[in-house]
Amino acid sequence: MLEFSDVSKRFPEGTLALAGVDFAMAPGEFVCIVGPSGAGKTTLLHVAAGLQRPTEGTVRLRTDKIGYVFQDPALLPWRTVRGNVALLAELRGLPKRERLRRAADAIELVGLAGFAHHRPRTLSGGMRMRVSLARSLTLDPELFLLDEPFGALDEITRQRLGGELSRLFVARRFAAVLVTHSVTEAVFLGSRVLVMSERPGRIIGDFPVPFDHPRSPDVLFDPEFTGLAREIAACLAA
Amino acid sequence: MPRRLKWGPPLVVFAVVIAMWYAVTYLLLAPDRRFLLPPPHAIVRVAVLDRANLGELLNALLLSATVAAIGLGIAVGIGMAAAIAMSQARWIERSIYPYLVVLQTIPVLALVPLFGFWFGFGLTSRVLVCVLVALFPIVANTLFGLRSVAAVHHELFTFHRAGRWTRLVKLQLPAALPAIFTGLRISAGLSVIGAIVGDFFFKQGEPGIGILIDVYRQRLQSEQLFAAVILSSLLGVFVFWFFGFAGHRATAAWHESALEPVGRDPT
Questions:
Q1: What does DSSP say about strands A30-34 and A56-61: parallel, antiparallel, or unpaired?
Q2: Is the preceding peptide bond at A214 cis, omega within 30 degrees of 0?
Q3: What is the pTM of this model?
Q4: Best of A61, A65, A76 to disrupt the B interface by mutation (most B CBs within 10 Å)?
Q5: At the topology level of CATH, where does A2-65+141-237 sit?
Q6: ipTM score here?
Q7: How far is Cα B143 from Cα B165, in angstroms, rounded to an integer?
Q8: Domain map of chain A by residue range?
Q9: For residues A176 and A147, what is the distance between their CA atoms, to the nearest angstrom?
Q10: Contact flag A91-B254 (C-beta cutoff 8 Å)
Q11: How many whole angstroms separate alpha carbon B141 and alpha carbon B147?
Q12: What residue in A sits closest to B161 (Cα-Cα)?
């Protein structure tokens, strides 16, 4: 689905953000990349999405149906929830009926039915992030790139949205790359966790996660889960 | 807030001002000098209750309002087009903006006689004065608004390969709307001032309220002079209120507060 071979990225001002990143993921995989801040996680997603070109190495992508979820929900404040969710289909030039149908489906799927005509300013942070997710879902992405989507949210909302993302993953069967600096979140969501080093970023650990989606919060207290999280945290600290 | 508290204080101030006005007229001014500040009831009697005088004033006011509106309309057209062009490429901004600033800093009164020279001493020149004074706040505020789009929104549009036109229509212009209305409000007030200033220089054709002010001054018709001054102030207050109201209607549903205006001093 997505393959990085020896990818490096140096910015024009000289900063080396990525140094020889190497990994491949299959369709239907949920890859979480965990690393310290400044490791180049966002750069990695930008390179994967084609927003930035790698300085060296190659990126192979098997689909052009990519959904990108920014850390900021990036909602247009003058549009309603429905208008925001329909935006991407609108940019693609889909006919209005089709846009509205897709928007309604996506809003339903993220549990915001009844809020279609609200403006973003009247929603909570968690609800805004759901709108952002719904917006990406309208284009039926085969690969989801998520840049710390829950980074700005409180712990309770984070956990709830994590559970919903796991449920969506089962319902829609997309592949996903999610970057985060929370080990717990990475293990909870990922079918595989990659660990990134400090800048310049490299992949220094690759851990399969042996739990089925959708996952319930109970898994957080499973000894196998905590053991794996400890192992990843140790790799991160090394 | 109860109605009494909302309307009470300004009404009290109004009453105090009227009382001071009467005091100056009747206590400070000798009867033969009362034309300098005629009492309010005399102004109402001469300028409002006399149908012929009132008609003359209202016709002039309507004409000045029309001149200001046409001037504002032209300024909005030119100003927004210039701001949109400048927002599309830095080199366009670098080419045009310095001259706009120069235009802005030239004292308008120094240019106004030239207009008469070039375009005659009638309505065209009056409209041009309005365009000149109203242009800059429109350009500056629109450009500011178009540029203040959040980076993350631009990233979203870039990621989904939106073209320039789509980006402008679906992202930049809606985001700029509050700033555009701020510019409109400032420019509308300036355009009214421009119409009255234009009247003082360009007296050919139907008289505007500024021409009447000058005529009444020469003829020492001070009741009508005061009425003309008050009416032109009311026109300014009205357009300021109108564009504030329209802007509020257009953006209140989603915009937290009015943006800081990028203004200019009146003439």
A1: unpaired
A2: yes
A3: 0.82
A4: A76
A5: Rossmann fold (3.40.50)
A6: 0.83
A7: 16
A8: 2-65+141-237, 76-139
A9: 11
A10: no
A11: 10
A12: A91
